[in-house]
Specification:
2 domains; single chain; 14 helices
Length: 333
């Protein structure tokens, strides 16, 4: 039988252990509460920062669009902007989407394949198909837009275009049509350029044989062809290297949105948001093999300074109208 002192010791040990347990439990609970409060605070901060980031991006996009459109107004000042002048222009590059009230002026080598895919997808019923499900060759079929119809719709539809640094676009056109060509480009351009500026003769008749033999103009040959005054006396520039302003006529058409290839994904998202289509369709990802601005100087190393300056004169309006800086590192050596 336990003595009174032993019983008191046991009771003391029991009570002490219970108190220690309760104290430990209380500390754990307090720690959990503190962690919970901290996590809630961090979550709220993330939401606030995310909201601020979205608002800042939206404000920057709005400001960017204002600057781009103001620049067009500035450089188009004094130009007769009456739609009557449409009687004199080619409307080949305008695509009309009546379902969504959209007019798109496409510029070759400025994400036009993916925008054509996107507009084609939008013509279907919801849920819209993936734009990438449409083959590139198929989306480039010619679409005819009648002048009197377009004039009426220009006043009410949302009008947009995407542009690109003119020299980067030119490099992209060279890569796509002078290094990789079909029979049309071989007969119409590659052979002519090589015969005129490289004095080559006895060239293969078929493009496949020419491709196998590595027959193609140098980048300098291509530039020589473009700056040669005789080129456009014979025929207008092919659309892949025709000036952007000559295809989309920004001094005649008051565009609601001017996108840039350099900020393609961000601009595409903002445009779809403006069209209230942001949650309905996703613009395709950019081409990983896209010509970058960083490579321009390397490409132009083989082009004499005089030809570079002539080339700038050919594309000067594109540089000015669409906010691209004069490439002084190429022109002021």
């Amino acid at each position: 039988m336990l003595s009174k002192s032993d019983a008191e010791k046991l009771i003391h040990v029991f009570v002490t252990s219970r108190l220690d347990y309760c104290n430990s439990l209380l500390i754990v609970i307090i720690i959990i509460i503190v962690i919970y409060i901290f996590l809630q605070y961090m979550l709220d901060m993330v939401k606030i920062c995310s909201s601020l980031h979205i608002n800042i991006k939206a404000q920057m996009s709005t400001q960017s669009q204002k600057l781009r459109k103001d620049l067009l107004i500035k450089h188009c000042a004094g130009v007769n902007q009456s739609l009557v002048d449409f009687n004199k222009i080619d409307l080949t590059n305008f695509i009309v989407d009546d379902k969504n009230g959209i007019i798109y002026c496409y510029v070759p080598k400025v994400a036009c394949t993916n925008w054509k895919r996107t507009l084609l997808a939008l013509k279907h019923d919801e849920p819209y198909p993936n734009p990438m499900s449409f083959k590139g060759d198929w989306v480039h079929q010619r679409t005819d837009v009648y002048l009197f119809v377009l004039k009426a719709k220009l006043k009410h539809y949302t009008k947009f275009l995407f542009v690109r640094d003119p020299f980067v676009r030119l490099i992209s056109a060279y890569r796509a049509k002078m290094l990789k060509y079909d029979q049309y480009f071989y007969d119409g351009y590659v052979r002519h350029i090589l015969q005129s500026y490289e004095k080559q003769s006895n060239l293969p008749v078929g493009y496949k044989e020419a491709m196998e033999k590595g027959v193609h103009p140098s980048f300098h040959n291509f530039i020589q062809y473009i700056v040669d005054p005789r080129t456009e006396r014979y025929a207008p520039f092919e659309p892949h290297w025709r000036q952007m302003f000559r295809m989309c006529h920004p001094c005649l058409v008051e565009y609601d949105f001017v996108g840039h290839q350099e900020t393609l994904q961000e601009d595409a998202q903002e445009l779809l948001k403006m069209l209230k289509l942001e949650g309905e369709i996703k613009f395709p990802p950019s081409n990983k093999n896209m010509t970058s601005t960083d490579s321009v100087k390397d490409w132009f190393q083989s082009v004499p300074l005089e030809d570079r300056r002539k080339l700038y004169k050919v594309y000067e309006k594109d540089f000015q109208l669409f906010g691209y800086s004069r490439p002084t590192e190429l022109l002021d050596e």
